Amino acid sequence: MAIGTVLRNEVQLLKADRLLVAALVVFAVLFSYALANGVAWASKLEGTVEAVRAADAERAASLVEELEHIAAGGDPVSRFTDPRSPNVMGGARGAVTAVLEPGPLAALSAGQTDLLPYYYDVSIYTNEQTFLQNGEVANPLNLMVGRFDLAFVIVYLLPLLVLALGYNVLSAEREQGTLALTLSQPVSARTVVTAKLLFRGMIVIGVALAASLVGVAVGGGWSAPERVALWCATVVVYSLFWFALAAWVNTLGRSSAWNATALVGAWLALVVVVPSTVNVAAGLLHPPPSRIAMISEARQASNDAVNQRSILLARYLEDHPEMAVGVVPDRRNTAALAWAATEEVNRRLEGVANRHDQALAAQRTMVRRYGLLSPALVAHGVLSSAAGNDDERFERFETQVRGFAEEWKEYFVPAILEGRSMELNAVAERPAFDFVEESQAQVIGRTTLPLLWLTLLAGLAIAPAVVGLGRVRGAE
Amino acid sequence: MITQIARKEFTDLLRDGRFRFSALIVGALLLVSLGVSWTQVRAASAQLEAAEATARDHWDSQGEKNPHSAAHYGIYAFKPRLPLSFIDQGVDPWTGTSVWLEAHRQNDFLMRPAQDATSAQRFGSLTAAGVLQHLVPLLIILLAFGAVAGEREQGTLRQLLASGVGRRQLVAGKALGIAIALSLLVIPAAVLGAIALVIGSNAAGELADRAAVLSLVYVAYFGAFIALSLAVSAWVSSSRVALMSLLALWVVNGLVAPRAAVDLSEWLHPAPTAFEFSRTVEQEMRAGVEGIRPPDRQAITQALLDEHGVESVEELPINVSGVTLQASEEFGNQIFDRNYNALWDTFERQSRVHESLAIVAPLLAVRALSMGLAGTDVEQHRHFATAAETYRRDLMRSMNGDLAQNSRTGETYFADDELWESVPPLEYDAPELAWVLGNRTLSLLMLGGWLLVATAAAVMGARRREDV
User: From the list B112, B120, B243, which residue is nearest A279 (CB)?
Assistant: First the structure.
């Protein structure tokens, strides 16, 4: 009954408070803008995926067309692009595109989609250098600043709204002298503050969830209900953390201005300073070896390899007897010799790439560990995992593309070494790429710990708030 | 009188624990970020020099081959970092750092450092520019929100005014006091920065003008924020409202407007997707476009035969392949210019949207100027990309020229180290200060405008109320 009364009172007060209403309107506008941006971005990605797939199909069709033409007694257009040759059908002309579709909730969070490549042309020439390519065409300035999507509004701005709504729930009553009056009623300070914050929390969380669900509905994210649930849970817990922080600061008995300053300071530290410091520290302590070194290594390797192709071929056949049964290395098979040189370059690049991946993995571990200091970083991580546009999904994609490239080579390289021609049926028979999405269990398993940690942080803020509120008396 | 008020304000601030605490934190962050960026820029520059030397060595020692094979082998160019970039790394982590200069193609810059970082990168890096653009204004707000409103609430404003202090004098004195307190923090950092610049670079002399303007830009920015905070403090009814409005302004300035500009700029000036861009270039390279036609080897050969008055290519004193290859380079260059210029122009129009939004967020003007002066904006990336591309074209011209002049059509021809070594290295000069400022006139106007309007508002705000 008491909570109900306070709540009713709050609704009346809120209606009267033009500033608060204005703040909520502003937020509704921000959420809508973020949503419109996210939906536009996701559909741009989907459009590109479609166009890329169409081009892929076109390439396959042109192979089939020419092979049929040759089968009917025609001549190939050019000796260099003869689709029967395995290093043409397996090379650039016959390459297939491995595509990572935008995550199920791409409309909510752009994540790394504007930075990292989400499709690769895979051929026998795919190697570590393939993965050095840029992602989408993007103005570097826009990449630097980051997109105005829902994840941004939730991680950065929502806490500020929470703080604006909650920084003076108790201190204002004290400053206006109404606290003693309120507490003379049969309600405790705990009930008053809980009711006030509950009311404000319902509005804030309600708006955030509503905007998210609209984004899910428009972007077709219902196919992954576990991701939607994960997203919503993060929004709720993250908001709770900030409300609890506001409640706690209110119990310290300082002025409204002091509360506001302290809370903005906390926001600044947790949302801006800690993440950027962790980021700088990770790069400083685990610098990835320079990518430039990879280029130098590739150049050196190809210089070296060109001059000793026959030795390399002999060695390659020794290492991979399964690739070509009975091929004699000193036969004048130029395609085989070229392949041996290519493979030697790849082998040397892998060394550099491995060192690189290790440093990056160490960086990620460090960011995950020290990132725990910042609820914003944790929330951002879980939100982008839920959206399916986080580093991990891109890494998964890259790994699968590497595996696929190996499969592709296993299909074409024996033919190159044996000097065999490809037939028409090879176009359909070649390996195809299918991205294997993380299972529900994997997504949830990976995000449970961070989400629990976020819940714990919220709990850590709630506990002193509850204790502190118990001590508040109307007259001091 | 002004000095007395300033002295009093200054002493008050120094005694204020909150100021000491926050100034200490901001100062520490400023120093740490300067130190970290400085070592990073040094390391990156060393890496770059080594890479350049290796790349040149690969080129020089490629052995005997046909000049066109050498053109296909090509050379790598690496983007240098201006020494001032340790203050503001700007878009550097988000642009590619190296480009392969090869025959027939203008390649993109590859290897954006951001691709090799974790997604925590999206929260921004701790840099001196970040501290100066975001944290110092917040500090100013905390120092100034109560300057007038607080005096009014305590009733001391009436006293002051009654004792004959002019309102303008009051505001000027307050501003001066805050500025002096702030300078205790900023000036040592600036001095350290200047020392680091001199130690870190032998080109510090040439950068002195950029560094000086950079300092002025930040002084103007802080000045605008002091005036703005005092204006708000004078205009509104209570110090609480002053604080809340200033904080809201700070959020719009540092958070909402910059991000909003990103998507807005892309709505207004959409860039093609990577797929569309490469497809267009590919198509135009194949079939030509709008009067730009691929070269016709037969026509070129016939023209050469006519010119030299001979019957067969064997009799020509030059190699037709060299001439045709050069013609195809010229054709490709036109296609690349068309497409890349359009793309860069789109980026510049997008940057202009960011700058225009400085009308609500002075940070956007300061950021554009700061990156420009530090040599880390998109325009200066383009400047280097253009220089690298010009170098590529010269390189191709000299390879094709050698092929055309020193061999005959159809014969096997190899050039050697002498030709490779005759290619001059890529010498890049960063643009002059005037060029940078010319790109940024809009931001200069915006920043000047903010400073003027905020000062006027502070002066008028002081006069507004009948406090006596």
Answer: B120
